[in-house]
Amino acid sequence: MIIPALNEEETISKVVRDFKREMKGAEIIVYDGNSTDATRRKAKAAGAKVFVQKGRGKGTAMREVLENIDTDIYLFVDADDTYPAERAKDIIAPILNGESDMVVGTRAYRERGAMSALHVVGNRIITGTINLCFGMRFKDVLSGYRALSKEVAKDLYLASSGFEVETELTINTLIKKYRIVEIPTEYRCRPKGSASKLGSFADGYIIFFTILSLFRDYRPLLFFGTMAATLFTAGGIIGLAVVIEWLQTGLVLRIPSAILSTLFILTAIQLASVGMSMDMMKNNMTRLNYEIKKANKKKPIKP
Ligand SMILES: Nc1nc2c(ncn2[C@@H]2O[C@H](COP(=O)(O)OP(=O)(O)OP(=O)(O)O)[C@@H](O)[C@H]2O)c(=O)[nH]1
Ligand SMILES: [Mg+2]
């Protein structure tokens, strides 16, 4: 059970105690982002094991956890007392049963004011973009309440340093063909006096561009192909008028249209080639990863 926390002295004791009560026997780890308040002291007093992260940002903290901590199930929850500890068992159940590799507690039943209108819209745009790019039907990809199996945790590469980490976790898990299950949970207001670490616009942009760059990396044919098809169609339509005129009069009078059409079509061809090369590279990388995994799993032959 892992709780990333940065300056959460208002809530950390309650969160640790709640999860200790609900998850008897589980080790509660608070992964602290170099808090300057009493977070670490209060977490220890409430019975958690406290680690201090080396780098900066929530993403960095989660990467350090996956690299340095060994456990069968990684259950992450925010330290701001917004997610219900009572649902922890439901969230890890699909992993224990072998039905899923990652479980996300979606913020379905929200207390009034728990999520601002801006965050609701932002979350819809981000979740909608992932659904569109990767053909999924997720409800909430940004939730901080999630469980990962050991296999997924040790197989993922995370480059995120900030709040784009949840997006990256979801997309990387999808790409590697692991199973993701969403479980609707409650979501409460951050208590008065505690401060959010999220910058709505700055982090929103970073998350959005993270999706686009992962879409480019993992579905290059679709990414470049869509741009190529759009340019090709535009070039074709513009060029058609030129060709019709040439057929009728034997002359090319619409010189700018002819140039623009050629430019569009040539660019489309280039984009399509980039898409195909990148797709080939991606497939080769997937194959290479598979071979490496297979080789690592092979047991050494005993004499
Ligand atoms: N270890 C660590 N934890 C962090 C860092 N930044 C944020 N956190 C924690 O990550 C969790 C999520 O941060 P929040 O500020 O609640 O972000 P949010 O839930 O998206 O935004 P709100 O809706 O405003 O609460 C909280 O437990 C933070 O304390 C960091 O740099 N390092
Ligand atoms: Mg929060």
Any key phrases for this structure?
303 residues; Spore Coat Polysaccharide Biosynthesis Protein SpsA, Chain A; three-stranded parallel β-sheet; 10 helices; 54% helix; binds guanosine-5'-triphosphate; binds magnesium ion
Structure description:
The model has no long low-confidence stretch (mean pLDDT 95). The relative contact order is 0.11. The chain is elongated. 54% of the residues lie in helices and 12% in strands. Helix 9 runs antiparallel to helix 10. The two termini are 42 Å apart. Strands 4-6-5-7 form a four-stranded mixed beta sheet. A three-stranded parallel beta sheet has the order 1-2-3, sandwiched between helices. The chain folds into two domains: 217 residues, Spore Coat Polysaccharide Biosynthesis Protein SpsA, Chain A; 78 residues. The protein is built from ten helices and seven strands. Strand 1, helix 1 and strand 2 form a beta-alpha-beta unit. With 303 residues, the protein is of the alpha/beta class. The site of magnesium ion has 4 residues, from loops.
Bound molecules: guanosine-5'-triphosphate, magnesium ion
CATH architecture of the largest domain: Alpha-Beta Complex
Determine the fraction of residues in helical runs and give it as a percent range: 40-55%
- Oligomer type: single chain
Question: Strands across the major sheet, in which order?
Answer: 4-6-5-7
Intertermini distance: 42 Å
Structural class of the helices, strands and pairings? alpha/beta
Low-confidence stretches: none
If you compute it from the alpha carbons, what radius of gyration comes out, rounded to the nearest whole angstrom?
A: 25 Å
Order of helices and strands: EHEHEHEHEHEHHEHHH
CATH homology superfamily name of the largest domain: Spore Coat Polysaccharide Biosynthesis Protein SpsA, Chain A
- How many strands, which pairing sense, and closed or not: the largest β-sheet? 4 strands, mixed
CATH topology of the largest domain: Spore Coat Polysaccharide Biosynthesis Protein SpsA, Chain A
- What is the total domain count? 2
- Strand content is 5-15%
Can you count the helices? 10
* Structure summary, number of beta strands: 7
Overall 3D shape: elongated
- Give the integer mean of the pLDDT values: 95
Name of the CATH first level of the largest domain: Alpha Beta
